[in-house]
Amino acid sequence: MKYGCNALILAALCSAPSALMGQSVVGNVFASDAAVTGSVMVVSGGTQVLSGSQVAAGVSTAVLRLARGGEIRICPGTSVAIAASVNGSKLMLSLNTGSMETHYDLGETLDGLVTPDFRMQLIGPGAFHFAVAANEKGDMCIRSLPGSTAAVIVSEVMGDGTYQVKPGDDVVFRDGQVSGATRGTTGSCGCPAPPPVPVQSAANPKPNVSANNLTPPPVQVAAAEPQLHVEVDAPFVFNAEAATEDPSYGVANLKTRGTGDIALQLQPTVLPPAAVEKTPPRAVATAPKKKATSGGFFKKVGSFFGRIFKG
């Protein structure tokens, strides 16, 4: 006989001790698309789940952070009903079909997990990191995850068979029976791994090259500012006689040539050379030249005697 999801939840809650029926806080749900039904409270940190609630994950894994510590991961498309003892130290989990994971430690206490065909006991103390998956055919797999230090006791709902799944085991059960259990699954138990986050070096980013496109995408390079190229067309005409106005006016009204580069047409005027002040020649006084006399001393003597005899 196979129980449906609602029947299984009711059976699990009714068969549990009355202490499990209290409205104790189980934990908070963290998921963008999970649906929570039953006894819940909306708080600032998210949706607070109380005992007797059911959490259904959407397309992503829902994480139930337990108030006592640790967490339960509800895989996409899976619904899990949760009941807790009054003090919240014990949990009873109910899974119809789908997958889930446990990640928590237990002291001197125990938790229970039921499916339509199997009952599981998690007896502390120890660390329980397990993945569980069940389908409508009565098949179930249990995979021990890294960090597990305790065993899970598996029993048949409609029989007396039991099986102990130890840390490091990976076991598949068929048709609601523990007999004929096989070790080593393909890793289908549990929630899918989250997609890896690509990390690129900021200094040397790598292009995204796929098998269908071996050509890396073009690198976007910022266009450099165009360099200003100036061409001066300036025929110089020398005319020392024609003085013009101040050349700064012509520079301020430069014309541009109609080409890609900027050209300046400058008609400079060469100013005449600065006038050089001429200094008039200075008059230099010179002593008059004495007429040279011929004869010297004898001439003077001759003149003396001439005057005597003449007289």
In percent terms, what proportion of residues is strand? 25-35%
Rg is: 56 Å
User: What is the residue-averaged pLDDT?
Assistant: 74
Name the helicity range: under 10%
Main sheet: which strands, in order across? Answer: 3-4-1-6-7-10-13-14-17-18
Give the terminus-to-terminus CA distance. 199 Å
Shape: rod-shaped
Which sheet architecture does the biggest sheet show?
Answer: 10 strands, antiparallel
Strand elements, count: 21
Order of helices and strands: HEEEEEEEEEEEEEEEEEEEHEEH
Detail the poorly predicted runs.
1-22, 209-215, 224-239, 259-264
Instruction: List the total number of helices.
Output: 3
Q: What structural class results from the helix and strand content?
A: mainly beta
Task: Describe the model.
There is one protein chain. This protein has a ten-stranded antiparallel β-sheet, with no helix packed on it. An eight-stranded mixed β-sheet has the order 2-5-8-9-11-12-15-16, covered by helices on one side. The model is unreliable at 1-22, 209-215, 224-239 and 259-264 (pLDDT under 50). It is built from three helices and 21 strands. The chain has 311 residues and is mainly β.
